[in-house]
């Protein structure tokens, strides 16, 4: 009798699970399924890659090394269309085409970042990059004026000075091989600290080096969580893994706190001296005579009760990380490409010779804007090597997209910038380096969202103009003095996953002084 009841109970359970499986992917820990508006099978709109275990795609990344995690997405992109996966109770909508990117990035309801951004919370807490809703709106409004054209114009002197300082290290050398991963990040960290934070790193150089080293441990932690679904939530992670990274977090937070403390003192002095010399119609924030660092805006907003000290720390950590790491990657690959494509380097150089004085004295934004080919060159570099290869969003409610998909609440949306930028549907010979693609005539028929290195829509990169200006300034300064020759074979580059684009090997070039 008992056996009969047991059989009935099991059959009922199986039947119930079978019916439930229509709406939920039962084996993938009850992930709610993505539906289509017209009831067509989901496979008519997206690809549905099979998982490696019976648990949907939950454990597809488990046990993979950093290169394996990166390559997994590249393999998936060969499906030729955007795809849906189901992992650990969550639907994941992966975009590899410009049309879907357009739909998602322009959806006003899709401004909340995805689950993986939670892995950055111990480091950045909820600053501009990771926050959402009212908090994000308020911070974006507060920081937008600090990237105003006038302010960027005033940063140009710093970029120039830092570029010249960068070149000083090769003084007296006619030829030298450099590891770009070792020398570039110091330049970009110095630049962001002096522009955005208003603090020179000269006497803090060692602390800057420690910041960068410890940043690498934080990234390690990020990847550990990404590739192990057991650590996706905070509870198990905090219990078993968080302590391994506590000291690295102390170092990076200590560094940013020291910068804030230094700037508070400098700002008080500066405001005092400005009060004495200011004329009635001078704007204290955009005064022509002296720069106003971005951090100053935050400190002044604190005085008005619009942000507190923790908020300032969040934004300083965010700006410092975003501002130094992303531009480093752009410059590393930009210089590598200069070496690899001598003819294109020459076109950049000739243009620089035409517009820029040898001592860089006229190198301001208007001159930089005349360097059209350099602009195409940097853009093409960021197409093939986008510093942010992946972006993520999450739905906060069931969301219907104009392409006919209905995404359940808490769906993760992954925008594979790396794959969109190499999608043959939008790019001819996508693997080839061809800066000319970005000339106005060659760009006019291209889908706007086929190229999104700085994202697009409401949550686009606030620092994109700053980044282009900084990267171009260093490239001009280097090309003025040196010819760049290739060292690293691009075929040998192994990409690995990270918070931003990473390679297993360091990238080297040879600098040869121009006669
Ligand atoms: C080559 C350089 C850069 C690239 C490729 C880049 C790319 C991006 C991308 C793709 C996003 C969107 C991220 C997402 O949705 O998850 C973003 C956001 C952001 N970027 Fe950049 N970035 C660069 C440089 C900078 C610089 C120099 C700064 C600051 C000085 C900066 C500050 C930010 C901030 C604060 C956000 C968050 C904006 C928001 O959500 O409102 N970025 N960046």
TrEMBL record:
Heme binds at residue 461. Keywords: Endoplasmic reticulum, Heme, Iron, Membrane, Metal-binding, Microsome, Monooxygenase, Oxidoreductase. Gene3D superfamilies: Cytochrome P450. PROSITE patterns: CYTOCHROME_P450 (PS00086). It is a peripheral membrane protein. The keyword Oxidoreductase applies. Its cofactor is heme. It is found in: Endoplasmic reticulum membrane; Microsome membrane. GO terms for cellular component: endoplasmic reticulum membrane. InterPro entries: Cyt_P450, Cyt_P450_CS, Cyt_P450_E_grp-I, Cyt_P450_sf, Cytochrome_P450_Monoox. GO terms for molecular function: heme binding; iron ion binding; monooxygenase activity; oxidoreductase activity, acting on paired donors, with incorporation or reduction of molecular oxygen. May be involved in the metabolism of insect hormones and in the breakdown of synthetic insecticides. PANTHER family: CYTOCHROME P450 4P1-RELATED (PTHR24291:SF105), CYTOCHROME P450 FAMILY 4 (PTHR24291). Belongs to the cytochrome P450 family. This is Uncharacterized protein.
